[in-house]
Amino acid sequence: MRRVFKGLGLGLVGLGLLGAPWLLPGWLLFLLSLALAKGLVVLGVLVLMWGGLVSFGHGLYFAAGAYTVAFLAKFLGVREAALGLLAAALLNGVLAGLLGLFLSRYRAIFFGMLSVAFSMILYAFLLKFYFITGGTDGLRVPIPTVLGFEVSARDIRTVNYFVNLVFGLLGLFAAWRLSRSPLGYLMRGVKDNEVRVEYMGASVKATVYGVYLFSGVLGGLGGALVALSVGHVAPDLAYWTTSGEFVFVAILGGTGSVLSPFLASALFELVRNYAIKLSPYTWQLSLGLVLLGIIFFYPEGLWGLYEWVKGRWRPKSSSKPSI
Amino acid sequence: MASEVVLETVDLARHFGGLWAVAGVSVRVCAGEVVGIVGPNGSGKTTFLNLVTGYLKPDRGKVIYLGREITGLGPRQVSRLGVARSFQIPQLYAGMTVLENILMALAVREGQALEFFRPLKTAGRVKKAEELLERFGLSKLLNVKVSALGGGERKLLDVAIAFASEPKLLLLDEPTSGISSAERYQVIETVLRALAEPVGGRERAVVFIEHDLEVVRRYARRVLVFFEGKVLADGPAAQVLEDESLRQRVFGARG
Asked: What is the ipTM metric for this complex?
């Protein structure tokens, strides 16, 4: 019976996601698109949290991915979405590969602060090299072609949504596999007991490095998707408050599941949207209060809330052995 | 028959500030040997293990493992060569289950530490882990989180993880400390029975630190007595532990 419910629930969610462009008003669909793209970046932050590492600099990959798409269009005249995404993934893989060499040596606050530092270097570059990056004005991203097909301005929202949905699901799947793989377990082992990881004959540094690569690619893809969806990039994407937002959303969602970044990301966008509508000048205040409430009452995030509801519904099986 | 020397240390020494915790230890351990290390607190027993496994770097001296010098290598490299250890305070992944702890050790042993797509829990690996845990009497606790385990169970799991890497040299740091005396013999017997089987046609060498002299008398064939960073005595258990003047000096009235 429970399986039937579960299957039914999943089917409904699937239908809802597929039918969203026809069920939701335009602004909400756009919001959902953004939530999917940013959810990927948050997922990147989350996989590092398995190892107890908090990246306060994922704006770096977010911006690098977004500007990759913008630069391709500006300098090479390439506006194919697939190429943009591929380039963003590759470039951010290389970028994470380089910075990871350095960052995988650090833990705790040092890791966090160094990642901010790197992201602020990129921010300064985007801001100051006006002739390349457009400075504070940023760059316009033209309407892309998707796998060679021209997309009309009328359909672009729907097309963007489906592109983001596909990549959101791909990222989700990859992170889910990672979470169950030896590398994913070792990453949690790094948080739990570094001494044990090394004494098993595994490398803490290599473990962090591997996961950091994955995390950087996710961040880049998320940025590229946002650039395609919004049609504009600006240096703010690399600013530390953007990075802070990703960390915030990750904590809001909780580390219990790879699904939570997307749920939290959607909730965050919704709350922000309504907070701005409600009070345009103090929206940060309203947003802060809502988030404070959630974190105060559900310290394990949205996923903790879900587990709590599930737990009330049926008795939790005890993990303790019978004595 | 002269068996192969598994571990040899030459004048191994390490100081902390003005104190020489290990002050020139030269020992040889051969395949098939079960060696007990005894000595009062602060006599350098654990520091010795830390030096051999590369957790600490020696100030002086050499560590030779199977004819190869391993001085200065870190715990990871030393572990990969086939030296495993357990800890006085078990080093486990507290947030994971017993099974997961062992599966990780097995996966790393298989060289799959960086595998990111295929799952940790493969049927073959789980079967291997179950067999291993069976030998250590932990099969009933497969899916129990480590944080819910008792002290003795943690000790056993710690040794089982070390064992999963199929070591040729196993160093156990007080495998029975913190365990009730009723459980104590059971634990050490379980451990030594599991270790008695040869790995890859080669006999293992086991070195264990132990405070309980009765345990040492029963299970160690050879005893090293550590005192103030030096090996004070080295010989067959019966002989060393019966030496009254040695006992007086090292353990006072106790033991």
From this structure: 0.89
